[in-house]
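Posting this for the archive.
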Amino acid sequence: MRELTVDETVTAAFASTSWIMEAIVQELELEGRSYSWLWPDDRDERRDEKLRRLARNVRQEWVGRLRHTEGADRRAAVIYLAQPGLDEYYEELEPALSGSSGWTATDVAALLSVVRSRRLHYWDATWVCQVVDPVLEIDVAERQHLREPFTRLIEAMAHVPLPADDRRRLHRRIALALPGGPTTLPLSALVRADAWASSVRDYLGDAPAPHLVKLVEHLCEVHTPRPTQTWRARCLTLLEPAGAREFVRFALTAFIREVSDDGNRRMVSEANTDVARGTIWAATLARVDDLAATLTWLAVHLGGDRARFTQDLVIAGAAINALGEGEDPQPLWRLQTSIKHRALRKQIDTALATAAGHAGITPAQLLERGVPTHGLATDGTRSWRLGDHTVVLTVRDAVTVRLGFTAADGTAVRALPAAVKETHAEELKAIKAVQKEVRQTLAAERARLEGLFTVDRTWSHEEWARHYLNHPITGVVARGLIWEADGTAFLPGDAPPGAEVRLWHPARAAPAEVAAWRETVTGRRLRQPYKQAFREVYVLTPAEESTGVYSHRFAAHIVDHPRLYALLKERGWQTLWLRAFHGEQEAVAKKELAEGAWRVRFRYETAAVADHEVTLAATDQVRFDRRDGRAWRETPLAWVPPLVFSEAMRDVDLFIAITSIAADPDWIDRGEDGFSGGERFGGEERFGGDERFGGYVREAAFGTLPPSAEVRRDALARILPRTAIADRCTLTDRYLVVRGDLRTYRIHLGSGNILMSPGDVYLCIVTARKRDAKLFLPFEEDGRLALILSKAFLLAHDSKITDETILQQIRRADVT
């Protein structure tokens, strides 16, 4: 008797299982009739439930009959149920397969041909794995005819999101059923489900050398971010034969070379994750060319938020950990400043610890040695020749990076001629890219050095000079800071030779010393990279000693939620976006301090919702945790190091100062929620129909000053005597009092809100004129100091105000 072909086997299977088809049609018809809710006029819930019960009975009957079928009928039923359109019957496929027997190679090929047309889902994984079982009953020689259909199955499953262990189990079962020869790659190795794997397979060809097959098989065995030492030793052995290192180099560069333009597709499919991870580590062990650059590229583009690429934390994590085996710390420095994903940042910390251990230094020392120079000279400049013109990049200060241009005769020009721009367009584009990178590095170094406040670190004078003072980028930041050695504070130009150096903090200094440094900074017009001389200091209060493990100092403030979220992220805190629904109506923002030894937690919750989005949040407790191995232990506030406590509380104070609705003139001037300009404060001010936040606004807008406002008051005391309005200004405990020609005004030093005398009438000035650019400000972190000064300059000459919205409020106050 002639053996049936694959297509004939499928046709015969469908014909012999017409009873299943008829039962399914009847079942679906009953179910369809049960949806009377689609026609409200004909709705009958009792009838619908009866129809659904009949449909279930039909299914139970044909499934029961299926359990008693055997041999060819059972195999035919499996083939029939695997066809497209019957996805919901995957649960019936599992027992049908497990109870089948007598499969031939043609039967299995017929089943796989049907499955190939079906759209597979994660819930199909169990019965798909069972498809391999019948193959074990077939003669080994006949199994080889199934390699092509099983290859198609693996490729189809490559795009199905499966747990990694389930996918590996499927691949192992297929490898067991279909072993290959010495020159045959395993079916599950380098699945042609992405451009990278296809390129590498093409490089190997149809019959790769046996030692390359063994190498690829070994690459597939990396299931963790860091392979074992046993795996590494075996890999080094497999890299010895000719062509092995060249293959690994090709496979590594193929990640970049074969990038797909489809941003919705993964660079590496889930089916190839292990072999890709193995490739990264093999290339690391082989020390291939451009290794660090390629690994950095993978980490940044697969671990970041680039729209062109689908995020792949597994491949990015492997690249990050592999960089920890290198000798160049610059890639890890770049990743720590550019990658924000919490899980990957932990991987970066691990890689830093590994690299530092190899170098015999601490991770912090490794980072400071890895700051890129971008080709800048020690004076912070770099030049390029474009034809007869020269472009010079200059780091002017801790925030400014400029490009300058000179003509052939050496004279400075404002811009390059159009002809030069056109001729050297690519070079100019590359120069601007360097300028952008320098800006990013400069910002990252400001943040890193500010973070050193919580770490009691010291440097030898030589180490400090090499990695801080004389670095072309870090040096710009370091030279604007106050340092100390042997108990004596100094600016870098006055550094005593030989002594150990550490960063100066006002919390460790006497009040007289702090005042002297503030006067020095103001007198020398020294704009520091961030607040240092004028930095706020937060000490434990009696109330916090009483509460023990939490602080309520900054609780019960109403803040703008989107602005708070953005500021938290900007300051390096990890948090969640509050949502009006789905149970995410409170969040706990977290930040690690003191190089990961301490963690601060700041809780806040939903306060108001508009258009299904959380608009306002209410602040709550601040707590601290101490690292204990790999865990965190909540710690009493009294045990927290003073600088860790001060810096953490300073961040929270900053968040409230910037995002509180009490400091937002646009919010405070709403008639329905706040008090409008020209109305009496403390008297009969109106809050419309919603008084939820009225009491908070009244208290916070003109209440007791937080430490940030106290520092602002100190700065104003030094700045105002140097201004033209000094004789019109007086500082009190909470206000800057400005005497105008028409009225006297009190500007609150915390919120910047204004009260007019007599009568304490609120004056709304959303924006004031710009302050004098020649007026020096020792710091400008939240814009509040400049805002207060600009309002003071405006109100000191109120008779010259032309803005009618302001004048109307002043005149209305006269009537009041």
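The first helix runs from residue 6 to 16. The CA atoms of residues 17 and 77 lie 6 Å apart.
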